[in-house]
Amino acid sequence: MIFGATGDLAKRKLFPSLYRLYQKGKLSERFAVVGVARRALSNEEFQLSVKESIEAASDKNGNHDEFISHFHYHSHDVTDSSSYLSLKQMASDLDSHYGLGGNRIFYLAMAPEFFGTIAEHLKADGLTDVAGFKRLVIEKPFGHDVESAKQLNKQIRNAFSEDEIYRIDHYLGKEMVQNIEVIRFANAIFEPLWNNRYISNIQLTSSEVLGVEERGRYYETSGALRDMVQNHMLQMVALLAMEPPIRLTTEEIRSEKVKVLRAMRPLEGDAVNEHFVRGQYGKGKIDEEEVPAYRDEPMVDPSSNTETFVAGKLLIDNFRWAGVPIYIRTGKRMETKSTKIVIQFKDIPMNLYYQSEQTLNPNLLVIHIQPGEGISLYLNAKKSGQNVEATPVKLNFANKGIDGINTPEAYEKLLFDCMRGDATNFTHWDEVALSWSFVDKISEVWESEKAENFPNYESGTMGPREADQLLEKDGFFWWPVT
Ligand code: BG6
Q: Looking at ligand 1, which atom is closest to the CA of residue 410?
């Protein structure tokens, strides 16, 4: 059951992902999808919208009729028990028709203010009384801060146990994010160096070219810190910094990630502005076209204090990472759409190849998450010619899915994991709570002090100058991600 079936996420991601799973034979013929939303639609109208979304996403010419015949629609009021009772009847009819064994997945792809209410109704009105499994998939934002997240968690935990809850962080479905673990733990050459003796700093960038678009109302209450840092960025940090799990099970991996989040040095008071920089985009040019400032976007307060850019320095206080800064940065309306991780290794003790003041380039391992997927390793080798001089060389591996054709979409993988009952790539409550606690301290300071210099970066650039200074203070600079 997809709550929010007429919404953007369902159309852009969920229906096309289900279709691809179907095409690949990963859905048997025994499935039904119930679209749940407020609007009054007939089954036929709903099926047509599913068909249009599949065609828009990928497949213009396929024969979709069989696939869309599994889709049914329920017009629903999320606060009204009678709606749930008729949904329950519909679900049990479909259960008998398709022989579903009472297995149910409830996917909440709609406004977060209803998450708690829906979960409570699902239980109170008997939709969770099933003979098979029941799972709840829940989209972000999971709360607005640690307190509201706790409250929401309490509501959903009344109806679902922790192992039945699948909190989506779509970055965990990305091929190269999943690859971090394999690169680290399946190679002999990285893990021995993966610590403060050999790594000087780590840089994570997730930059976007798009602005806030039509999401001003939501974004004004969120900002880049809650929208990207609390979830996607900290999840990537946890994967990069965790200890090798003793086994690749959901529990073991999660428990290692949780330890990283627990070891993250909390920031308070003045330390917030020493370690974190906020930015907001002004007008500028993207692809030669003028784009408006954030404050001129629809549904945005003309004197908004909301950040559209964050850069920060994280410190993980444990034996492996003490003293290694992990820099993160993310923002909207930046120069390029790119998610990359750069691991910069320490310099060798002495440079034998140095020519007229020139220093050797440090070794870098770059994990390209998107748009291109791959790994690059920067080494130094001999420059051809008579002199023994070093020059940087790049070893490159590019995943075939550069254009996205061969790589399964994050949502496709996550939906499939949920059907199989594998929660590894979903966020556990402990991770959510720890990352909110970290981020809340920063929001408290930022919300209490108006950013006088907003807007402080031009659209189409890599963010405010202060983000560069953050690294310069430590003798580093952002490696280019373009
Ligand atoms: C979402 C945020 O979680 O991630 C969006 O709410 C952001 O604001 C998006 O644009 C970025 O995702 P991706 O996969 O395009 O990097």
A: 14
Question: Tell me, what's the ipTM?
Answer: 0.99
- Give the Cα separation of 198 and 180 in Å (integer): 18
Closest CA to 205 of 368, 87, 413, 89: 368
Whether residue 482 is predicted with pLDDT greater than 80 in this model: the reply is no
CA dist 262 and 247 (Å) reads 21
Is 365 in a helix, a strand, or coil?
Answer: strand
Mean pLDDT of 129-150: 96
Name the 3-class secondary structure at 134. Answer: strand
**Residue 274 φ/ψ, nearest 5 degrees:** -75, -35
Phi then psi for 221, rounded to 5 degrees? -95, -5
For residue 340, what is the enclosing H or E element?
strand 338-345
Residue 68 near residue 47, CB atoms below 8 Å: yes
**Which ligand 1 atom minimizes the distance to the CA of 212?**
8
370's tokens: 């998107």
Domains and CATH numbers, the chain: 1-138 (3.40.50.720), 170-403+429-471 (3.30.360.10)
The predicted-structure confidence for 65-124, as pLDDT tens digits, reads as follows 999 999 999 999 999 999 999 999 999 999 999 999 999 999 999 888 999 999 999 999
What single-letter DSSP state applies at residue 334?
A: B
| Ligand 1 centroid – CA 3 distance (Å) | 20
Q: How many residues does the chain have?
A: 482
Q: Is the Cα torsion angle 348, 185, 431, 260 positive or negative in sign? A: negative
Mutation to probe ligand 1, out of 139, 176, 208 (largest number of atoms < 8 A from CB): 208
- 388, with CB counted inside 10 A (0-12, 13-18, 19+), is exposed
Rounded to whole angstroms, what are the CA distances from 431 to 49, 183, 233?
36, 23, 12
